[in-house]
């Protein structure tokens, strides 16, 4: 059975030879590799997406069958990473699921300010940050609407880690330059203060960029952090994983959070497994680790 036999709409013959097919065996192989490398669970309903995204990679390598492409992928770690990256979904936007940012401002910010005033460091992590909109939304919430309000964060030991599997989006998060359409959801008071025009685009100000460490990181690999975190955002990432992978990740997040720290997850995600036990709901898809410190 052929899962995705048709070419993307448009001008197929100019792009791919007519006979290129992604059959069930090819799809199963792609799914097994993506599961092994990133724990992403590809359902057969994604066959058309796999076909169209990987067709580009076949073209780049001058290959005319998925079988040949998969032989290359098995032999070449760089192409394997490129294939996994091509199959990630990086959709995001500024102030996505805005109730999380309301909660952060109203219930968490004061605590973080207190911690900095008491001489502690503050650490936040956007895990699966995509192109950085989530990261800078958080920082704008910390900065508020004026330079004086932002001083505690700019001058304090406050750092934000932004990680993703995809090198392309990590580079965009580090670059922090966004189109006019992309910055639209940012409230005006923040836009005026924390963005500057750069040609037709908008760059996030240096004070915000300096707080961010943007790194490639597979959530199922080694984590380099040695310190506990005050806040972790991992939103709209676990939807791509199966229950075993999600449960493993929740346990790791729970261990990394300091007692009293917060975990924010996406609207269609849920906490499962033993790691969820010490995480108490304190808002819509917001959890607080038991204890205080
Ligand atoms: C839909 S985006 C979510 C972006 C942002 N958190 C938000 O909610 O708007 C999901 C991101 O998770 C990343 N991702 C998927 N699997 C991953 C893994 N195993 N390790 C790290 N990042 C992963 C993808 O590359 C993608 O950028």
TrEMBL record:
<dbReference type="InterPro" id="IPR026024">
    <property type="entry name" value="Chemotaxis_MeTrfase_CheR"/>
</dbReference>
<feature type="domain" description="CheR-type methyltransferase">
    <location>
        <begin position="15"/>
        <end position="292"/>
    </location>
</feature>
<comment type="function">
    <text>Methylation of the membrane-bound methyl-accepting chemotaxis proteins (MCP) to form gamma-glutamyl methyl ester residues in MCP.</text>
</comment>
<feature type="binding site">
    <location>
        <position position="92"/>
    </location>
    <ligand>
        <name>S-adenosyl-L-methionine</name>
    </ligand>
</feature>
<dbReference type="InterPro" id="IPR022641">
    <property type="entry name" value="CheR_N"/>
</dbReference>
<dbReference type="InterPro" id="IPR000780">
    <property type="entry name" value="CheR_MeTrfase"/>
</dbReference>
<dbReference type="InterPro" id="IPR029063">
    <property type="entry name" value="SAM-dependent_MTases_sf"/>
</dbReference>
<feature type="binding site">
    <location>
        <position position="96"/>
    </location>
    <ligand>
        <name>S-adenosyl-L-methionine</name>
    </ligand>
</feature>
<dbReference type="Pfam" id="PF03705">
    <property type="entry name" value="CheR_N"/>
</dbReference>
<feature type="binding site">
    <location>
        <position position="164"/>
    </location>
    <ligand>
        <name>S-adenosyl-L-methionine</name>
    </ligand>
</feature>
<keyword id="KW-0489">Methyltransferase</keyword>
<protein>
    <recommendedName>
        <fullName>Chemotaxis protein methyltransferase</fullName>
        <ecNumber>2.1.1.80</ecNumber>
    </recommendedName>
</protein>
<feature type="binding site">
    <location>
        <begin position="218"/>
        <end position="219"/>
    </location>
    <ligand>
        <name>S-adenosyl-L-methionine</name>
    </ligand>
</feature>
<dbReference type="GO" id="GO:0008983">
    <property type="term" value="F:protein-glutamate O-methyltransferase activity"/>
</dbReference>
<feature type="binding site">
    <location>
        <begin position="235"/>
        <end position="236"/>
    </location>
    <ligand>
        <name>S-adenosyl-L-methionine</name>
    </ligand>
</feature>
<feature type="binding site">
    <location>
        <position position="90"/>
    </location>
    <ligand>
        <name>S-adenosyl-L-methionine</name>
    </ligand>
</feature>
<dbReference type="Pfam" id="PF01739">
    <property type="entry name" value="CheR"/>
</dbReference>
<keyword id="KW-0808">Transferase</keyword>
<dbReference type="InterPro" id="IPR036804">
    <property type="entry name" value="CheR_N_sf"/>
</dbReference>
<keyword id="KW-0949">S-adenosyl-L-methionine</keyword>
<dbReference type="GO" id="GO:0032259">
    <property type="term" value="P:methylation"/>
</dbReference>
<dbReference type="InterPro" id="IPR050903">
    <property type="entry name" value="Bact_Chemotaxis_MeTrfase"/>
</dbReference>
<feature type="binding site">
    <location>
        <position position="134"/>
    </location>
    <ligand>
        <name>S-adenosyl-L-methionine</name>
    </ligand>
</feature>
<dbReference type="InterPro" id="IPR022642">
    <property type="entry name" value="CheR_C"/>
</dbReference>
């Amino acid at each position: 059975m052929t899962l995705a036999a048709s070419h993307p709409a448009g001008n197929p013959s100019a792009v791919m030879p007519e006979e290129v097919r992604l059959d069930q065996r090819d799809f199963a192989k792609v799914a097994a590799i993506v599961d092994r490398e990133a724990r992403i669970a590809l359902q057969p309903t994604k066959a058309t997406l796999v076909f169209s995204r990987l067709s580009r990679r076949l073209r780049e390598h001058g290959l005319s069958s998925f079988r040949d492409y998969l032989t290359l992928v098995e032999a070449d770690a760089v192409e394997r990473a490129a294939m996994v990256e091509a199959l990630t979904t990086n959709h995001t936007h500024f102030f996505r699921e805005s109730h999380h940012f309301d909660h952060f401002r109203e219930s968490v910010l004061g605590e973080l300010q207190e911690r900095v005033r008491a001489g502690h460091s503050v650490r936040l992590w956007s895990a699966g940050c995509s192109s950085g909109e989530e990261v800078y939304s958080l920082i704008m919430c910390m900065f508020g609407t004026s330079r004086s309000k932002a001083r505690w964060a700019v001058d304090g030991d406050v750092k934000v880690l932004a990680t993703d599997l995809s090198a392309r989006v990590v580079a965009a998060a580090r670059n922090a330059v966004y189109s006019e359409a992309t910055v639209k959801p940012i409230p005006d008071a923040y836009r005026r203060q924390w963005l500057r025009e750069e040609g037709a685009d908008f760059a996030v100000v240096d004070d915000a960029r300096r707080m961010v460490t943007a790194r490639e990181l597979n959530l199922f690999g080694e984590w380099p952090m040695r310190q506990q975190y005050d806040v972790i955002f991992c939103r709209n990432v676990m939807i791509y994983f199966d229950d075993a992978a999600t449960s493993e990740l929740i346990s790791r997040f729970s261990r990394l959070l300091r007692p009293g720290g917060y975990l924010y997850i996406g609207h269609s995600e849920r906490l499962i497994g033993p790691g969820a036990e010490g995480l108490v709901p304190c808002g819509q898809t917001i959890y607080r680790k038991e204890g205080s410190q």
